[in-house]
Amino acid sequence: MTSSRVLIVRWLGRWFALAMLIAPAVFSRAAAQRPVEARHAATRNPSVRIVGSFIELRIRGWDKDSIVLTGTIPAGAKFGGGFGGRPGGMSAGAKWYLENPSGEAAGKLELRVPEGARVWAKSGSADIDASGMTGGLDLNIVGGSVHVSGTPHELNVESMDGRVTIDGKPAWLRVKTATGDITVMGGSEDAGLTTVSGTIRVAAGTYERLRVESVTGSAIFGGDLAHGASLDVNTHSGAIELRVPRKLDADYDIATVAGSIENRLTSRPAVPGREGRGQEIGFTTGNGGARVYVRSFKGSILLLAR
Amino acid sequence: MSEAQDHVAFETLSNFADGILDAAERERVQRHVQSCTDCEERLARLRTLLGAASSLPAELEPPSHLWGDIRHRIVALSDDQTRSLPERVTVRPGRGARALWSARNPWLLGAAAVVLVAVSSAVTAALLRRPVVVAAQPAESIARTLPVSALPASARAIEADYARTLGELRETLELRRAGLDPATVVKVEASLRVIDQAIAEALRALADDPANLTLVDILSANYERKLELLRRAAELPSST
């Protein structure tokens, strides 16, 4: 046997030994999971509720009259619930719960529902991704992330430190976080974005009624306002930045109690506020119409043209 | 479940009350509850709580009602009083009802500030009476300097509204706290401290400038954040 063959045999031997060492761990992990599959014919707008320790949930609205839940969950997890309605009939809803005795979030699930469904999902730390829905979504997490695209009629998202990204165009939108960042890009007829210390970014989209509120988190608005729209921004100490078209038809009423205002949108300077503290400014651009009302205790306010 | 000797876990009991357990689990819980007075009582309390919770509004926004009520009263009052103070009222175009808040009537605005600060103090005191996941509050010392007994009847009624809502949240938190992930409790406490600091700053500023209505808005918004956070903490599922 040549020396090169000896080397190859040794190399293969080492890899084989390593594989034998790793295999039990790999197989035990694989064996620790079990598949989940549930499917049923459903009405066009069923109500679906899923709660528990899943770590990943994909929600897909589809043009079919059925509900399908697939995925994997820990072998020892309690998984219960099922479809409502009479056996053999169309289901008007489904409810599932997942409980992992170890307390760790572990299930990975995909839920397909008729696009007009109303889905309610609640977990601890989880990544939720939803698309294709035209009905309602109510998503609640502690950590992780939520991403929603499409045009759900109603969208309610609550998280503690999980980040939330909405690039769809929900008619009605409410997002509330404690420290999680909020990014909205699609527009809405009626939106309310609230955080304690996360950053709120309204990057794009047209809004008819938008309310942005934070305690210490920054608020950045770079979207468009519909004719006669209202934009309310309120922070305690979070910085506020508004990037709006110079000729937007809007009336501005802006004040900060102890912070400062920098106006690069018009030539009008901000004036000292009550008793010389803070600053305030009011002006109209274009023909007026939309109402922009901004208040902060000590956050700085920057007005920019785009 | 090892409930035969350990009682039924809260989450299981909650799912039982929700009717989402599978048949076998449901039967086991049913059997245990029939033979265990402790679990029977917990289930009864849970059902009462769920019944009460189902009648709560989907969005908890007491301040809109609260401040709306206060504003309504003060605006109505100012309609009468501003007639005798024409040169002191500053009305800016496009401001609508908010313009009335610019009236520099010391009695009117002073009364508003007293009501606001007193109600705020009552809310803070109510929140702190039985700390659940709430850490020591910097706003507390400021709130305690304002006697609740000085509140007018209307403000006391509003305070009662707040106290009831907060009491319900506290009750729910008490039930759920042991089941929450300690890391989540830490996050909730940290955010509550941020809000309390903001409330304390706004209260201090309001004490210096009682007629500043921007501060009124900001303070009320901070209280809204606190109520929302408490509600969400109370509604978190177990082990999260």
Q: How would you spell out the order of helices and strands of chain A?
A: HEEEEEEEEEEEEEEEEEEEEEEEEEE
Reported for the largest beta sheet of chain B, the result is:
none
Structural class category of chain B: mainly alpha
Query: What do the pLDDT scores of chain A average to?
Result: 91
Kindly estimate the percentage of residues of chain B that lie in beta strands according to DSSP.
Answer: under 5%
Helix content of chain A: under 10%
Cα-atom Rg of chain B, whole angstroms?
23 Å
Range of helix content of chain B: over 70%
Q: Strand tally of chain B, please? A: 0
The quaternary structure here is heterodimer
- Please report the distance between the alpha carbons of the first and last residues of chain B: 20 Å
How is this structure best described in words?
The complex is a heterodimer of chains A (306) and B (240). Chain A has one helix at 3-31, and strands at residues 33-52, 54-62, 66-74, 78-83, 91-99, 107-114, 118-122, 125-131, 136-141, 143-148, 154-159, 163-166, 172-177, 182-184, 188-195, 200-202, 206-214, 219-221, 224-235, 240-244, 250-256, 261-263, 271-272, 279-285, 290-296, 301-305. In chain A, strand 23 (271-272) and strand 24 form a beta hairpin. Chain A has one helix and 26 strands. Chain A is mostly beta strands and 306 residues long. The chains are: A mainly beta (306), B mainly alpha (240). Chains A and B meet through strand 4, strand 5, strand 21 and strand 25 of A and helix 2, helix 9 and helix 10 of B.
SSE layout:
The complex is a heterodimer of chains A (306) and B (240).
Chain A: H1 3-31, E1 33-52, E2 54-62, E3 66-74, E4 78-83, E5 91-99, E6 107-114, E7 118-122, E8 125-131, E9 136-141, E10 143-148, E11 154-159, E12 163-166, E13 172-177, E14 182-184, E15 188-195, E16 200-202, E17 206-214, E18 219-221, E19 224-235, E20 240-244, E21 250-256, E22 261-263, E23 271-272, E24 279-285, E25 290-296, E26 301-305
Parallel strand pairs in A: 1-5, 1-7, 2-6, 2-8, 7-9, 8-10, 9-11, 10-12, 11-13, 12-14, 13-15, 14-16, 15-17, 16-18, 17-19, 18-20, 19-25, 20-26, 21-25, 22-26
Antiparallel strand pairs in A: 1-3, 3-6, 4-5, 21-24, 23-24
Chain B: H1 3-6, H2 10-18, H3 23-35, H4 37-54, H5 62-81, H6 106-129, H7 139-144, H8 153-176, H9 182-208, H10 213-235
